Protein backbone atom coordinates (compact mmCIF):
# COMPACT_ATOMS: atom_id res chain seq x y z
CA UNK A 1 0.00 0.00 0.00
CA UNK A 2 1.07 3.54 -0.58
CA UNK A 3 1.47 5.83 2.39
CA UNK A 4 -1.85 7.51 1.53
CA UNK A 5 -3.63 4.15 1.41
CA UNK A 6 -2.03 3.16 4.72
CA UNK A 7 -3.11 6.43 6.35
CA UNK A 8 -6.67 6.10 5.05
CA UNK A 9 -6.85 2.50 6.29
CA UNK A 10 -5.57 3.51 9.76
CA UNK A 11 -8.05 6.40 9.98
CA UNK A 12 -10.90 4.10 8.94
CA UNK A 13 -9.82 1.53 11.54
CA UNK A 14 -9.67 4.20 14.25
CA UNK A 15 -13.12 5.47 13.31
CA UNK A 16 -14.58 1.95 13.40
CA UNK A 17 -12.96 1.20 16.76
CA UNK A 18 -14.17 4.52 18.24
CA UNK A 19 -17.69 3.71 17.02
CA UNK A 20 -17.43 0.28 18.64
CA UNK A 21 -16.49 1.87 21.99
CA UNK A 22 -19.42 4.30 21.72
CA UNK A 23 -21.81 1.47 20.85
CA UNK A 24 -20.50 -0.46 23.88
CA UNK A 25 -21.79 2.39 26.09
CA UNK A 26 -25.21 2.27 24.40
CA UNK A 27 -25.20 -1.53 24.69
CA UNK A 28 -24.96 -1.17 28.48
CA UNK A 29 -27.13 1.93 28.93
CA UNK A 30 -30.00 0.74 26.74
CA UNK A 31 -29.67 -3.01 27.46
CA UNK A 32 -29.09 -3.74 23.77
CA UNK A 33 -28.00 -7.29 24.51
CA UNK A 34 -29.35 -8.50 21.17
CA UNK A 35 -26.50 -6.47 19.56
CA UNK A 36 -23.74 -8.24 21.51
CA UNK A 37 -22.35 -10.20 18.55
CA UNK A 38 -21.91 -6.92 16.66
CA UNK A 39 -19.54 -5.71 19.39
CA UNK A 40 -17.80 -8.76 20.82
CA UNK A 41 -16.28 -12.00 19.58
CA UNK A 42 -17.79 -15.29 20.75
CA UNK A 43 -14.66 -15.93 22.86
CA UNK A 44 -14.51 -12.50 24.52
CA UNK A 45 -12.76 -12.36 27.91
CA UNK A 46 -13.82 -9.66 30.39
CA UNK A 47 -12.10 -8.79 33.66
CA UNK A 48 -13.71 -6.32 36.08
CA UNK A 49 -14.20 -5.64 39.75
CA UNK A 50 -17.68 -7.14 39.48
CA UNK A 51 -16.27 -10.39 38.16
CA UNK A 52 -14.88 -12.08 35.09
CA UNK A 53 -16.63 -13.46 32.03
CA UNK A 54 -15.65 -15.71 29.15
CA UNK A 55 -17.93 -15.75 26.13
CA UNK A 56 -20.95 -13.74 25.11
CA UNK A 57 -23.52 -15.35 27.42
CA UNK A 58 -21.29 -14.86 30.48
CA UNK A 59 -20.65 -11.25 29.41
CA UNK A 60 -24.37 -10.52 29.18
CA UNK A 61 -24.95 -12.08 32.61
CA UNK A 62 -22.14 -9.97 34.10
CA UNK A 63 -23.51 -6.77 32.54
CA UNK A 64 -27.05 -7.48 33.68
CA UNK A 65 -25.93 -8.33 37.22
CA UNK A 66 -24.22 -4.96 37.53
CA UNK A 67 -26.75 -2.76 35.76
CA UNK A 68 -30.26 -4.23 35.97
CA UNK A 69 -30.71 -3.10 39.58
CA UNK A 70 -30.63 0.54 38.41
CA UNK A 71 -33.43 2.31 36.55
CA UNK A 72 -30.84 3.66 34.14
CA UNK A 73 -27.17 4.26 33.50
CA UNK A 74 -25.24 6.72 31.40
CA UNK A 75 -21.71 5.81 30.33
CA UNK A 76 -19.47 8.36 28.63
CA UNK A 77 -16.13 7.38 27.09
CA UNK A 78 -13.24 9.71 26.27
CA UNK A 79 -9.46 9.99 25.85
CA UNK A 80 -9.12 7.15 23.35
CA UNK A 81 -5.64 5.82 22.67
CA UNK A 82 -5.39 3.36 19.77
CA UNK A 83 -2.69 0.85 18.91
CA UNK A 84 -3.40 -0.94 15.64
CA UNK A 85 -1.23 -3.76 14.35
CA UNK A 86 -2.69 -5.30 11.22
CA UNK A 87 -5.79 -7.26 12.20
CA UNK A 88 -5.44 -6.72 15.95
CA UNK A 89 -5.79 -3.57 17.99
CA UNK A 90 -6.09 -2.19 21.48
CA UNK A 91 -8.06 0.81 22.67
CA UNK A 92 -7.64 2.56 26.01
CA UNK A 93 -10.53 4.77 27.12
CA UNK A 94 -11.69 6.65 30.18
CA UNK A 95 -15.24 5.87 31.28
CA UNK A 96 -17.48 7.93 33.54
CA UNK A 97 -20.75 6.25 34.46
CA UNK A 98 -23.77 7.61 36.32
CA UNK A 99 -26.13 5.06 37.88
CA UNK A 100 -29.75 6.13 38.42
CA UNK A 101 -32.50 5.07 40.78
CA UNK A 102 -35.65 6.77 39.61
CA UNK A 103 -34.68 10.29 38.62
CA UNK A 104 -31.84 10.47 41.16
CA UNK A 105 -28.15 9.75 40.64
CA UNK A 106 -27.39 6.89 43.00
CA UNK A 107 -23.73 6.43 42.15
CA UNK A 108 -20.91 7.60 39.92
CA UNK A 109 -17.97 5.51 38.75
CA UNK A 110 -14.81 6.38 36.87
CA UNK A 111 -12.75 3.66 35.22
CA UNK A 112 -10.10 3.00 32.64
CA UNK A 113 -11.14 0.47 30.06
CA UNK A 114 -8.63 -1.52 28.01
CA UNK A 115 -10.18 -3.16 24.97
CA UNK A 116 -8.54 -5.78 22.80
CA UNK A 117 -9.96 -6.09 19.29
CA UNK A 118 -9.52 -8.12 16.18
CA UNK A 119 -10.68 -7.65 12.64
CA UNK A 120 -13.28 -10.21 11.59
CA UNK A 121 -15.11 -10.80 8.33
CA UNK A 122 -17.83 -8.50 9.73
CA UNK A 123 -15.47 -5.75 10.91
CA UNK A 124 -13.72 -5.05 14.21
CA UNK A 125 -14.96 -6.84 17.33
CA UNK A 126 -13.74 -6.72 20.91
CA UNK A 127 -12.18 -9.95 22.14
CA UNK A 128 -11.00 -8.59 25.50
CA UNK A 129 -12.10 -5.96 27.99
CA UNK A 130 -10.36 -5.05 31.24
CA UNK A 131 -12.14 -2.54 33.46
CA UNK A 132 -10.01 -0.86 36.13
CA UNK A 133 -11.95 1.34 38.57
CA UNK A 134 -10.31 4.66 39.41
CA UNK A 135 -13.00 6.26 41.58
CA UNK A 136 -16.28 4.98 42.98
CA UNK A 137 -18.88 6.74 45.07
CA UNK A 138 -19.76 5.04 48.33
CA UNK A 139 -23.14 3.90 47.03
CA UNK A 140 -21.62 2.04 44.09
CA UNK A 141 -18.86 0.59 46.25
CA UNK A 142 -21.56 -0.99 48.44
CA UNK A 143 -23.27 -2.42 45.37
CA UNK A 144 -20.10 -4.18 44.21
Which range does the strand content fall in? over 45%
Shape: globular
Residue share in helix: 25-40%
> Number of DSSP helices?
3
Describe, in plain words, how this protein is organized in 3D.
By secondary structure, the protein is an alpha+beta fold. It has one domain (3-143): Nuclear Transport Factor 2, Chain: A (Roll). It has 3 helices and 6 strands. It has helices spanning 3-29, 56-67, 138-143, and strands at residues 40-48, 51-54, 72-85, 88-101, 104-120, 123-136. It has a 6-stranded mixed sheet. β4 (88-101) and β5 form a beta hairpin. The model has no long low-confidence stretch (mean pLDDT 93).
Task: Record keyword descriptors for this entry.
3 helices, alpha+beta, 144 residues, Nuclear Transport Factor 2, Chain: A, globular
Short description:
With 144 residues, the chain is an alpha+beta fold.
Q: Can you lay out the helices and strands and say which pair or pack?
A:
Elements: H1 3-29, E1 40-48, E2 51-54, H2 56-67, E3 72-85, E4 88-101, E5 104-120, E6 123-136, H3 138-143
Parallel strand pairs: 1-6
Antiparallel strand pairs: 1-2, 3-4, 4-5, 5-6
Amino acid sequence: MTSTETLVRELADRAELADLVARHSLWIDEARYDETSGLFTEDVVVTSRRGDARGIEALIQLARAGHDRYTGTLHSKSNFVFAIDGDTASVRAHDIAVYLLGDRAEAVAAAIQHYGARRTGDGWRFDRLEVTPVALTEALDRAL
